[in-house]
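ok trying this again, last paste got cut off
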Amino acid sequence: MVSVLLVAMILVSVLTPFIGVAAAVPSGLVGVPDANVSEDFPVGTEPSLRATDLEGSVMASDHAESLEVIATTPGRASGYVNGTTVGGGDVVLVLRDETHSTGRTVGIDAGALREALGYTPERIYGAHDDGTEWSAPVRYEGGLLLFDVAHFSSNVVTFSGTVQIAATPATDGSTFSYDLSESDAVSDYNITVAGHDSAENDTESGAVALGGSSALSISSDRDPLGHDSPTPVLNVTGTSEIASNGTDTSGSSGSITYYQTDHPVSSMREVRVDVTDRWDDTYGNVGYTLDLYVDGTLIDSRSGNTETWGGPYASAAETFSVSRASWDTMRVEWTFDKSSGGIKDISIESMAPQNATVTTDDGVTAELGDLSVGETKTVSFPVSASSDEFSLSGDGDGGVDWTLAYREVLETSNVTVSVNGNDTSYPGTLADGETATLPTNVSWVADGTNTVTVSVGDNSISADAPAPSVGLQYSHTSTDERTVSYESSKLTESYNVTRTYSTDRTDARLVIPFSGNVAYIGNVETRLNGGPWSSVSPGDYSLDGTTLTVGLGSISGGDTVTVRTTGDRISVVNGSLTVTETTPMGERLDSEIRLDSWANDSYISLGGSPDEDRLHYTYNESFGDSEYDEVTATGYHRLHLPSASDASTFRLSTVPVRVDVATGEARFRVTSPSTTEPKLSIRPGVHTGDGVAYEFLSPSAGDTYLLYSTTTGTQRDSAVAGETVVLADDDSGEILHIRKSSESSTASGGSGFFAGGGGAVTNTAADYIPAMPVLNPGLVAALVLVIIAGAIAYTERRMSSTRSTPVYERPLVLLALVVAGFVGVLLISPESITAPVQSALDTALPLASVLGVLLVVGGLGYWWYTRRQARIVEAKTPENVFRIGGDDK
């Protein structure tokens, strides 16, 4: 076995066309006589290159008649060069000329060499008999491998190659392995790592009053970017402050005066006056007139009545628009037509902040200007990686509701590469694209299997931060060559492995260690020597945990075998899928999936992906919006798609919520896929009342979060957030909203499984509820038979022309068959009719009226045609004449 070859040799062997020596031999070259070609091998050995392979295949530019070519082993070659140690491998060539020592060009038939060795080299290494070593590149011309030798006495030639592992990027825990037959040939050992930024979009939101502050939770090594812009974006909506002046006045007329110095609000947007009827034993109403003065100026005068027959303490309210940035006094005057009238309350609503500014604790500022209540503004807010909070300043009163959208960036740091348990590290931080070469030692590389493991980061990263990654280039020269291409995403992990075998192998195998859990191997393909790809039979490969073993069968020396495969981190039970658009590691899951085959009882097993424990949802579906994530007490996630079918497509994503079901299982559907305040629809499994813990993974630390039921309008649980926040409830059918306690909560409509409340993920129709047969299948079968038999019996009782028509040609019988089939399917499996109809109506409804008219016209035409044909047949039938007794007259 020749020990070493270069990666470039594979390219040469695949791409370079080789022809015989007789074709276009370069001028000046003369063949070396066969008598000058010999071999020197131990008895009983079977080297890959023999003297017979070289006969007629060696040429020289000068003194070909005196040049000797000897094929031998490295150990025996040292005897030809005064004991000089010769490179590794099983075969070397000794070129000797004991008559002429001048340098010359030597050529060897590249086709013959490739046929014997299985590859063609790119560089030649040699040693002179004086102990000096030399190296020369090879070139190919006229089918010959050519190289130059500076001078002659005795020279030894050997071949080299390279092992390479390339990962773009490798993630924490990524593992690679490769086999070596002779580790003593290892040289040029290099491990280079490159910085690879991991990025992830994040959004924070809250409310802050003028003069107050809001906390930020940014997990980024560099100043964050915007989602689709160079800097983060802040959205604010102006809010007001309301000061209530509870009062209790009565009498037919009166007035009350307020001074700004006694109130918390300095601006005035609106004034509300609540009128009441204090009469407690007579039904009727009270008429009133209200006058509002601000700083002595009449703002408005209002008249009205309390509710007619409203009963005791009937009320009414008047709201005055003022819009004053400042005020000193406010007076309300009233007149009632009954002495039971009174003023119950007078409240002042402020304006939104004016001349507002937001400022982070590390000095980043953004101007908001003047805000109106309910007005929304969007500004660039370049917060830094060290920003922990921001404050709101300005004139007037009120505050803002805010949302900050930014993109966190995690740099590569603290990289360790372990080779067979020997660690080499880079302890610092690598900027994106920056490279570092790690210390190496060839003694780490061993005969047999070598394992390379990559570690990134220091385990101090928060749960919602991007996953760290690093670029890896690992290489050394060796006897065998293989290139490992590795690509990792949220749902898939792909390998493209190439290996050239330098000797014949039986029962050859390739082992691929996936870096994470792999649930399903969709396809394994191989190709030989750059030929077409062919699929490997499932019986020839196996997946044990994260290790894929591929059986390659018998391999001839020199063959180059390439294997490519993709492992899916998710799999379909009773079906298959293809991830048509992947999500890079470190980003929020957002992948496109195509269902290659799907059945009524199919579901997607989510175990294996980095987000396997998060709640999943779909959007942009080609089918009805009906998915739900079923989670068991063991943490197993099953994604059900009741409306899907073969070739359906959809996008898959997650919300930062983990659920822990105490017993049994529960079903969850994301109705509002917010990353800050998600809404979930819950349905129990077999048993109702199983406990469920909801862990929200991206809260604002220090804030109180609520688990609020929008179905019942009640709070289920609350807790103060740290890195995460855990809220508890059970699996009762309802819609739950995870939100901050500082925001108002209004119960939305809907109840039961997947009801409304917060909006659907997409604009689809009603939520899915598994359908059951309407009748017992036996009764349905009987009903179908009755319909068909009734149609046959009815036609049998018709006129003779009907009885003469075969049963299968009678229109009424054919119609009965269609009706019976439709009724049977509808009663056994309603959803098989209703779901496609619903989907079809969504797209075909504009054509419904045209199709209806066509169907009616076609039906009438068919009925008329069949009736006319029956009458024609009857008219053509000859009458039968019977004669009873007597003679013809």
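PB: full thing came through this time. DSSP finds nine helices and 58 strands in the chain.
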